[in-house]
Amino acid sequence: MGEKQKAVDEIMLDRMKELKVETMYDRFQAQQPQCGYGSLALCCRHCNYGPCNIDPFGPGPKKGICGADANTFAGRHFLRMSGSGTACHSDHGRAVAHLLVSTARGEAPGYRIKDVDKLMMVAECFGVKTKDREVNEIAEEVGEMALMEFGKPYGTLLFLKRAPESRQKVWEKAGIAPRAIDREVCESFHRTGIGGDQDYRNLTNQSMRVALADGWGGSMIATELQDILFGTPKPVQGRSSMGVLKRDHVNVIVHGHEPQLAEAVVMASSDPEVTKAVHAAGAKGVVVAGLCCTANELLVRHGIPMAGHMTMQEAAISTGAVELMVVDIQCVMQAIIETSRHFHTKVVTTLPKAKIYGAEHVEFSDEHALDAAKKILLMAIENYKNRDNNKVFIPSSAEPNIIAGFSHETIKYMLGGRFRASYRPLNDNIINGRIRGIAGIVGCTSPRMEPGALAYANLAKELIANDVLVVTTGCAAGQCADGGLMLPELKDACGPGLKEVCEAVGIPPVLHSGACVDNSRILIACSEMVKEGGLGNDISDLPVVGACLEWMSEKAIAIGQYFVASGVYVVFGMNAPVAGAPDMQKLLTKDMEELVGARWDFERDIKKIGKMLMDHIEKKRDALGINIKKERKLYDMAERRALERECKPVPGHH
Q1: CA geometry: angle at 37 spanning 35 and 42, to 5°?
Q2: Which residues contact 577 (CB under 8 A, 6 or more apart)?
Q3: Which of 112, 302, 363, 570 is the most exposed place for a label (fewest CB within 10 A)?
Q4: Does residue 200 fall inside a structural domain?
Q5: Is 356 in the same domain as 438?
């Protein structure tokens, strides 16, 4: 399956080259060699004394003009990346909280509360009373409480109490329990200004605190409130590849991260006026397909097909079959404007905080979401007549069928059933060795990797062959989907233990859990495993690992840091963002384990990462004492009777 997708990537790049369409791969090559100081985190331009560089090898300067050394440079860069990544996910969460309030007040036509059970769970966590109250009244207060998490003056984040008590104590002892989300982001940038925090260890502590404000704050708020509004994902069948686009349909791609836009487009696509316009234009219908994390959100809730992950956005336009690409926020490249000029595709932005010069703009708001979505679809339909069929080139690859939508609630249900939903069967199968451990494969895709390399899919194949269950999100999930790894039939590619579990439960060995913001689902699953018992007393005791092979966004750094700060060993591929500061790198890859029970690793050789992850899983299993093989004893009849006599209760005793 992977070979087919590799061919598609290469064919599309060849097609773009033939049409003289510039790609991110072309621009990546044009940037070589990239700045060595910057890649080592040894360039600082946080004030106008600079930019200052530190020479790590030769006789050049070893300090900035203010006296900051390499570790301070790197510590500030790492904290700023963590803060920026947290800001992205948390602003996303804030937008969803506003939508929940608007929906509850009846001010957002088209949206409604779809998961009342999840609403009640969040209400309990936030301390919101539910007895004898209307659903919308509860939802409004939950939304208001969520908004308070961004700027409240006192206390720590409410979702922290969903972590095991042992982990909460680790955060309290280290002084890294996050307070209000916006406070942590603001303080992070304050600390990294000229003359601010100049101890790389202290900077790293704050990077953990601001990252935790993402994982247990902004991202968790986004995920939980999206489930309340749009439904908690359940297993759903979908398809993935650019082959989902159709020659005889109006093709609309929704690209970005905030699902309220995509949900509105999906709702508007069935509007009678839209249907009438499609038929008048001579098309057979409208295809709505997702890109990047919007694709993941639409897939896990509705089974709407994925057109691709982040690095495929130029290629999608270059099929010549896309009437309109509508975008909101994050991971949208300015280059798509130039790409669209080679074809008839319109690019439409929707948010005032994310405009692109050269794109058309249709303002999107909660109150007028359906009107804006319908306007966008009518623009696409009107543009259908401008398509040049001679330029249409839709790859004829197979469109892999996939099963997605594995929220942590779904996993509990599939393991235990409606009346005894539990992580007990998962824990038991880890203890008995059928499942060696769990790996979260998450993150971005990058032109640093050869097109068609399918690094994430190859890592997933290696892990499941060694009885490691894989949970994946974001663009990594998109690549695994393109590689055809999300079907129960893939059990034959598993080791014997994992195969047995997948057969019994009816799940694929690679579980698609949503968008990058939905990594919070993995945090909750880890907490549930600890609370279920038998695998230690803290997340750091679990045979659980995380990997991001092609990290690109600052969001990836924030995600990695909140997993490490939560007790999960994490490996990033390609380059370390602090490579020029040996003490800072040692802090992340060694010393941090003493403070929070987990650490980072950075490895350029992608082929080595699978072994690193599996070695860590076995190390955790050894520490738990579950790698000790117990001799099986076959009892004869006399021994069985003796055993029964021993087990009989003594009269008068209970």
Answers
A1: 150
A2: 41, 74, 77, 78, 81, 557
A3: 363
A4: yes
A5: no
Q: What is the DSSP letter of 436?
A: -
Same domain, 374 and 425: no
| Whole-prediction pTM | 0.93
Q: For residue 408, what pLDDT is reported?
A: 87
Residue stretches of the chain with pLDDT short of 70: 1-8, 397-400, 416-419, 629-654
Rounded to an integer, what distance in angstroms lies between the CA atom of residue 617 and that of residue 629?
Answer: 17
Q: Which two tokens stand for residue 290?
A: 């997702």
Specify burial of residue 29 (Cβ count, 10 A radius: 0-12, 13-18, 19+). Answer: exposed
Q: What is the structure's pLDDT at 492?
A: 87
- Residue 431 is predicted with a pLDDT of 96
- Asked if 334 and 466 sit in the same domain, the reply is no
- Give dist(CA 88, CA 219) in Å, integer: 9
Could you give the angle at the alpha carbon of 320 between the alpha carbons of 316 and 321, nearest 5°? Answer: 80
**Using one digit for the tens of pLDDT, what is the confidence trace for 304-341?**
988 989 999 999 999 999 999 999 999 999 999 999 99
- Using DSSP's 3-state secondary structure scheme, residue 535 falls into coil
What pLDDT is attached to residue 649?
Answer: 45
Tokens standing for residue 320? 């010549």
Last residue of a domain, one of 202, 230, 258: 230
- Asked whether residue 617 is assigned to any structural domain, the reply reads yes
Which CATH number characterizes residue 88's domain?
A: 1.20.1270.30
Integer Rg of the chain from CA? 26
CATH of the domain at 328: 3.40.50.2030
Q: Based on the fold, state whether residues 268 and 345 are members of the same structural domain.
A: yes
Neighbours of 552 (CB within 10 A): 18
Query: Is 276 found in the same domain as 204?
Result: no
Q: Is residue 5 part of a domain?
A: no
Does 72 fall in a domain? yes
Residues 489 and 603 reside in one and the same domain: yes
Asked if 118 contacts 228 with a C-beta cutoff of 8 angstroms, the reply is yes
The reply to whether 611 and 479 lie within a common domain is yes
For residue 238, the surrounding DSSP H or E stretch is strand 236-239
- Say if residues 241 and 308 touch (Cβ distance below 8 Å): yes
Domain boundary, last residue among 230, 254, 289: 230
- Do 492 and 346 fall into the same domain? no
The total domain count for the chain is 3
The residue written with tokens 């700045």 in the block is 35
**DSSP letters for 557-622:** HHHHHHHHHTT-EEEEES--TTTT-HHHHHIIIIIHHHHHS--EEEES-HHHHHHHHHHHHHHHHH
Residues spanned by the domain of 246 = 241-391
E strand map for 39-89: 43-44, 52-53
225/585 Cα distance (integer angstroms) = 36
What pLDDT is stored for residue 639 in this prediction? 52
Question: CA geometry: angle at 549 spanning 467 and 497, to 5°?
Answer: 5
d(CA 431, CA 424): 10
Residue 511 token pair:
């579980």
- Tokens 């050789």 correspond to 605
CB atoms under 10 Å from CB of 121, counted, come to 16
